[in-house]
Amino acid sequence: MTSAVPTSTERTGAPVPGDGLAAASAAALEALRTRVPLVQCLTNEVTTNLVANTLLAVGASPAMASAPGEAEELAGVAAAVLVNLGTLGPDQRAAVEPTVAVASGAGTPWVLDPVAVGVLSVRTRLAGRLLTERPAVVRGNASEVRALAGLATAARGVDARDGVDDAAAAADAVARSTGGAVAVSGPVDLVTDGGAHVRLAVGDPLLTTITGAGCALGGLTAAFAAVTDPFTAAAAATTALGLAAERAARVAHGPGSFPPALLDALHALTPEDLAERVASAGRVGVPA
User: Fold this and answer.
1) Which residues form the domain of 48?
2) CATH number of the structural domain spanning residue 68
3) Are 64 and 49 spatial neighbours (Cβ–Cβ below 8 Å)?
4) What are residue 189's phi and psi, to 5 degrees?
5) pLDDT score of 92
6) Which position has the higher pLDDT, 260 or 14?
């Protein structure tokens, strides 16, 4: 994705954007495939299969248990946890907060994907409570991130109607409140830890034609968060999915053949590929 334009040089353990971030991203992918982290996913039931297969393709081990009692038990042994608010059925609603409490108590990194927050009241209130448990990464679109910061949004359902730049200050505020990173998805993605930004221009329009690309990115972000700092995890996951999408789009014939090609491209991705794309995105990126 993009150029790295720090607003501050102080960050908690994250590498300086540019070559440092490229090297850290490559090391993270190598570590992920060596350690095969168990990623517990409380995720959108519409996209469970794609999230699980995405994690398998990149080298992680997915666990999709969401039943109350089982979900928090699994979070106690997982290397990372994903909480996606896409389909808040009764079981998931009952399991989310206990699962996050277990992850937080164990020091396990967890990722919040605040789907449709700011549009629907139940999940908006829930997301506000979850933020106090300090997720390692918040990953959402611009409207969702603005809503998390208490700002008005132009969202409609799960679709953003705000631009990434409109959410930059909100993303900084959320990152500072959690002590982690925030990734804002859009035509050019933004990753911030509240002190520095990296903008990532990577991906393909076919990602917007399938159900679950954002959910899959949440799962990837959690997998990377299991092996590296939150800023690197968000940037590496975003770039990995975007680069795989670029490669998949070259061989796919449309949205039907795109998902399997995307999984193949993720599986074939090397640390060197990831480092090169992070570095090239930084050189040709969009200034903050």
Assistant:
1) 4-284
2) 3.40.1190.20
3) no
4) -75, 155
5) 87
6) 260
